[in-house]
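Co-fold these.
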Amino acid sequence: MALTPDATLGEAGEFGLISELVKIFEGDEHVLVGPGDDAAVLRIKHGHVVVSTDMVVEGRHFRRDWASASDVGHRAAAQNLSDINAMGGTARHLTIGLAAPADLPVAWALDFARGFAEECASVGATVVGGDLTRADQVVIAVTVLGQCTQAPVLRSGAQPGDVLALVGRQGWAAGGLAVLGRGFRSPRVLVEAYRRPETPYAAGKQAAEAGATSLIDISDGLVAEAGHLAEASGVAIDVRTDAFVIPEPLQAVGAALGADPMQFILGGGDDHALLATFPDAAVVPGGWQVVGDVREGEGVTVDGAAYDGPPGWTHF
Amino acid sequence: MALTPDATLGEAGEFGLISELVKIFEGDEHVLVGPGDDAAVLRIKHGHVVVSTDMVVEGRHFRRDWASASDVGHRAAAQNLSDINAMGGTARHLTIGLAAPADLPVAWALDFARGFAEECASVGATVVGGDLTRADQVVIAVTVLGQCTQAPVLRSGAQPGDVLALVGRQGWAAGGLAVLGRGFRSPRVLVEAYRRPETPYAAGKQAAEAGATSLIDISDGLVAEAGHLAEASGVAIDVRTDAFVIPEPLQAVGAALGADPMQFILGGGDDHALLATFPDAAVVPGGWQVVGDVREGEGVTVDGAAYDGPPGWTHF
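Predicted complex below.
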């Protein structure tokens, strides 16, 4: 069937759309069987596989009027690729489940797939399978498989005396989301940061090779994720606000919205920056910024005091 | 937080529920890192990984008043495990994404997880990760990883002269669904077959070792799946209705609903029976039943004629 640009999923049918989607997702030499059979078959170079899964829900994680289909594809891929980054691994293969209403335009699904494939290509990963079904709202489920060439870096290895370090933009996506939530479209650089994160994909492996003792990606907020590190490691973490230079666009948004721009940095997620602990400031790799330290005890403090800002993203 | 039996997801929160869920999903010696970090880490015995993903949507694939949470868990797992079976592989590890309304009872989520874990345990597979988020309806996304000890059996290897063979109950789940759709709850054996399929998990590897030339699981209907084999292999397939003995419960339902019970067998999915082609009837393994043959040409015929019954499940 030839698909017209304004066809809906209901008109195209499952197999009509799938035949277009598989053209977007090209395999690589490690994909022995790609989309189209009951399962994909992958050649794994060596013995350890890193796997993670994440869902993206319309109205909850994105709005079709706030981000293009391609942007949603980039973000859905980035959010999953980032989980492999946060283990110090390299993402290789992904599956996508797309549940959508029958009136979803085929063009949206294809643009989503193109954005998704572009983001994956930026780290050399490919889509090897998927599922397509009907639901009342768009729900995207992604699973990513990766590999580590060294031991994966877990959340649980931080030690008192370690330093806390950050890599990547932090708070920009939260600033962009706040702008969109008030009905504005600028500063454009923040709106774009929300729509399509610039994920520090090389930094996870870099941290692992530099001897990071713990590692996590910031999807729910800096303080919230520092709390996950602290809890898993059985330590306390203190974040120092004077370590951050507040970027000009966040200062502008703070002034315009009457908000403290530091709240975007401490509470914001969605940039997929990485947070790690290192045994010594001297081994923190280039591009990373020391933003705190690890102590005996439990919980997270900001400048030595309890944090009373927004707690970060909650799913329910 | 202590969870009361009648708490909702909104009351329990993401982390309240996750802490209960991870108790249900126990790892095995191949799970180096299980749920709770950014990704799971798996030890893979040898070099090929088989991966598949499938979504299950409330109101589309199940109704909470037609099946218990545990049944939905069993079915969601079975549907994915069956895809590895249909490659001749053995399922090892799974991830689950659960998107659900905030008013979903925690008890439903936990019973679902228990049913899911039980079905996985029946083949020695374990849950290694997942995601939990909010959506307007329950959407379950499962990804399964498996391995093959021999070459995977694809859809594309059928040759003219091969025989078509089936293993497992076929049409029972469709009969059960028809009964429920009319507001009845019996014959109970069919309703149970719809709620919790009896999947022939050992038969995929058995077919591969016996030299099957193509293999698929029946989730969308026997004729529809035979059509997928025919298309992928570039052959024609004829199904013979006299090969089937119609089971008594399907005869009873046909009589009660005024339907031809053969339609449940030819058009029904959801039993996750397997359909395979073998080069010769003499090599068809025990438990399999020859139900047709492979010819030159294209498409599927039933008793040599075009099939005009229900086409099987369509997703849009």
